[in-house]
Amino acid sequence: MKSFTAAAALAFVSSAAARTFTVYNNCPFTIWPAHFTAPAFSSTRPNYPTGWAQGAYQAVSFSVPDNWTAGRIWARRNCDFSVNPGPNSCLDGGCNGGLECDINTGGGVPPATLAEFTLGASDGNDWYDVSLVDGYNLPVRISNNKGCHVADCAVDLGPNCPAQLKGPFDSTGFPVGCKSACEAGLGDPVNNPNCCTGTHNTAATCPSSGVAYYSYFKSNCPNSYAYAFDESSGTALWTCSAGQRPDYTVTFCP
Ligand SMILES: *[C@@H]1O[C@H](CO)[C@@H](O)[C@H](O)[C@H]1NC(C)=O
């Protein structure tokens, strides 16, 4: 009896060494979600293909290691992988590799709204955010089952996107993205406050006030990570105690 209990406890410990992530497509159209892990941390990838098709109102769940580090989940729009599968197979968010993103170089083509995660960081927290640093292509929400703060960008930023940033567009002319000022090529290529590059490469020298159209993104999506040093806003990066082993849901078109 005693050894049975010990074995059951061990089984519990090993199954608790992972979290359940659910991706829910609340958009009224098919999307092609993907995940990517920064190559330096690729020993901790989720146990699921790196890209898949997901119809409207479908949910998929998969297991993610407790120490998933520098991971991202996003979704691609208007894909066709039948010819020359790769980054241009989708109107936005496409990746090297085609349907399944290359584990080393398949981080996705901007503009794309990113759900970013580092689980079990050294401070004992999970860290997560909805990033608009690479621009916007779909509304996204990160929620969890432990009552920790929601991170989201719930607004469709395409239609009212400033003209310089708007696009790409689908065959009807509808904007399926809104680029960041940096991705849109506004400003100097090497020394650019929109990109926090050159002399602007620190939080102190790259304030949000110097980033063109920052307020369009941040005012519509106040819980999002809207430029490279948005921690200072206090509403960009969110935490949840890793000890509670939260499960997360990433909802597209929440
Ligand atoms: C995550 O944990 C696994 C298993 O313990 C280990 O092999 C890997 O190096 C860890 N990765 C990171 C990024 O800490």
Automatic annotation (TrEMBL):
Superkingdom of origin organism: Eukaryota
Keywords: Disulfide bond, Signal
Signal peptide from the UniProt entry: 1-18
SS bond partners: C27-C253, C79-C90, C95-C101, C148-C240, C153-C221, C161-C178, C182-C195, C196-C206
Protein name from the UniProt record: Thaumatin-like protein
Natural source organism: Lentinus tigrinus ALCF2SS1-6
